[in-house]
Design brief:
With 567 residues, the protein is an alpha/beta fold. The chain is built from 15 helices and 22 strands.
């Protein structure tokens, strides 16, 4: 119960006399490593001091618009206790055990009393150990001039594991690691050549096709040339009965961007999407091999072909294969910044859901929502009204994001306000690889890949806090019938890797199906949902998907698999 009386004098002298400054810069990255996944609204600790057994802090509440509803806003009260993590105490209520004894959370509250003011957005805090109470802390909160707001005579913490707070993998994200492969006996193999086109030619069990992209033209042009070339070969391979028992291995160079690579070729990345779709539709007929060499006599190919895997990489002569791995916790300090957030595809589907989320949960107060239809898209007036009622400035722009000049103009129009990009635009056109043509590939690549590349170019030289690419698990694990969509999403993933190596912000998030009745998800039927669930990849609720978005934003990896996997 809260006692309605003032039982202390406040914190009028500030900073506290005789106290030492405690450095709290970067503490939230440290907290994340301990298992405390604080979002932007809860990162309020901005200063700390120590005086003997006392800790003092200054905390601030981001602009969430509803501080006046509370004696102390929940996020501000939570931040008031962060000093015990950042500076440490000898009690069980804080950081003393955070690094190794689990996550400590408030458990028992005694003697809670309110002061003379409430609804504050900036506060002074004093914390000290309660005499005679094991693990108990006194917590005093005052406003920015020292007037009493709240006092707790004794708050006792309790250690739990991070897993106890996590609902069965609801916010668990995954990465892709490459590990050394075990090889068997190398098969007979040969290169794709005109000789193989001769019906009388003997075809070895394995044929390697060298999918070199052309050197001429801009990135979108080279992407299309590479994709059209491999698509023609794949379709031809499937049409020849004499190759029915052979395996085609498509060779690329630096298309997947492994750790340690000095070069990343985004132009080759979409080739992997086409081949992955062909693999899924025709098991055992295709593989894809990525190397880090340009030499004609490719070192390591023979040993790589001895690996019974559908995806292989050679780095420094070592043969590697990919494995999906769970990422144990947030290891970064991601943020959308304090400026304007540009969301492409932001007027509908996932883009509109994300627009509401970043305003409500990330405190974003400046939004530009861009899409082909812009203000004429369905539901835009209601969306804008909701966002403005939440305190955000919103601009809706009609723009063809597959047009370089349009993207440059869009970014230049935002100017120095721009702090983050969330690229959620995309279209689909499902079909088996035999039915795909360059003409069917083009609009899908334009909406996702071309737009992403132009956004990358347009923002070079700008100080961004985040560059988020909404990709799809369909480019990695469930590509059947989605060769063009998989190709476009693989481009996003490799672009994020390239930006990461350029020391630019980038996170490509590989989402599973969002279970919302808008955008591309509206075309997915119950049978498809059942098939995905049976494969261990259930559709994501909106709440779960947004939680994965937040978790991925705080990882340091450029490519994060943001879907639930039922192991």
């Amino acid at each position: 119960a809260v006692v309605e009386s003032v039982v202390w004098e406040g914190l009028g002298v500030w900073p506290p006399v005789g106290a030492e400054v405690v450095d709290v810069g970067g503490v939230y990255g440290v907290f994340a490593g301990w298992g405390y996944g604080y979002g932007p609204v809860f990162r309020g600790l901005c200063g700390a001091w120590r005086r003997g057994g006392e800790l003092f802090a200054e905390v601030v509440l981001p602009e969430v618009g509803d501080a006046g509803r509370f004696v102390v806003h929940p996020a501000l009260l939570d931040a008031a206790m962060h000093v015990t993590l950042g500076a440490g105490t000898d009690s069980g209520g804080s950081g003393a055990g955070a690094g190794g004894g689990g996550v400590v959370i408030p458990f028992v509250w005694n003697g809670v009393s309110r002061g003379v003011v409430s609804g504050v957005s900036r506060a002074r805090v004093r914390v000290c150990v309660v005499e005679g109470v094991s693990g108990g802390l006194v917590l005093e909160v005052a406003d920015e001039v020292g007037r009493p707001v709240l006092r707790v005579d004794s708050m006792v913490g309790r250690a739990i594991t991070p897993e106890q707070l996590r609902p069965a993998g609801a916010d668990r994200v995954y990465g892709l690691d490459w590990i050394p492969a075990s090889a068997g006996e190398a098969p007979e193999w040969g290169f794709w050549s005109e000789v193989i086109a001769d019906a009388e030619a003997l075809v070895p069990p394995v044929v390697v096709f060298d999918a070199r992209e052309p050197a001429d033209g801009g990135v979108p042009v080279r992407v299309r040339s590479a994709v059209a070339g491999v698509l023609e070969v794949v379709r031809r391979w499937l049409s020849e009965p004499r190759w029915a028992d052979a395996r085609l291995v498509v060779l690329t160079r630096n298309a997947v961007g492994l750790d340690g690579d000095t070069e990343v070729r985004v132009e080759s990345a979409p080739v992997w999407g086409v081949v992955r779709a062909a693999q899924a539709e025709h098991p055992g007929r295709f593989a894809v091999l990525d190397t880090d060499t340009d030499t004609a006599d490719i070192t390591g190919v023979t040993s790589a072909l001895a690996v019974v895997e559908s995806e292989i990489a050679i780095r420094g002569g070592q043969v590697l294969v990919p494995r999906v791995v769970a990422l144990s916790s947030s290891d970064g300090s991601g943020s959308l910044g304090s400026g304007c957030v540009l969301i492409t595809g932001g007027t509908g589907g996932i883009g509109a859901v994300l627009a509401r989320h970043v305003v409500a949960e990330h405190g974003v107060r400046d939004l530009v929502l861009a899409s082909r239809r812009g203000p004429d898209a369905d539901g835009v007036p209601q969306l804008v009204r909701e966002l403005r009622d939440s305190g955000a400035r919103v601009e809706v722009v009609a723009a063809d994001l597959s047009n370089r000049d349009a993207v440059l103009g869009l970014v230049d129009g935002i100017g120095d306000r721009l702090s983050a990009v969330v690229h959620a635009a995309g279209v689909g056109d499902n079909g088996l690889v035999e039915s795909l043509t360059p003409e069917r590939m083009d609009p899908v690549l334009a909406a996702k890949a071309d737009s992403a590349w132009y956004l990358h170019e347009a923002t070079l030289g700008r100080e961004l806090a985040a560059f988020v690419l909404i990709s799809s698990i369909g480019g990695l694990l469930l590509p059947a019938g989605q060769g063009n969509y998989a190709a476009a999403n693989n481009f996003l993933d490799t672009l994020a890797t390239q930006r990461h190596k350029m020391e630019l912000p980038a996170t490509s998030m590989l989402f599973g199906l969002w279970d919302i009745n808008t955008g591309m998800s509206s075309h997915i039927g119950d049978i498809d949902r059942q098939r995905m669930r049976a494969k261990g990849l259930p559709a994501l609720t909106e709440q779960t998907a947004l939680g994965l978005f937040d978790t991925a934003l705080h990882t340091s990896r450029p490519v994060v698999i943001t879907t639930q996997i039922d192991t």
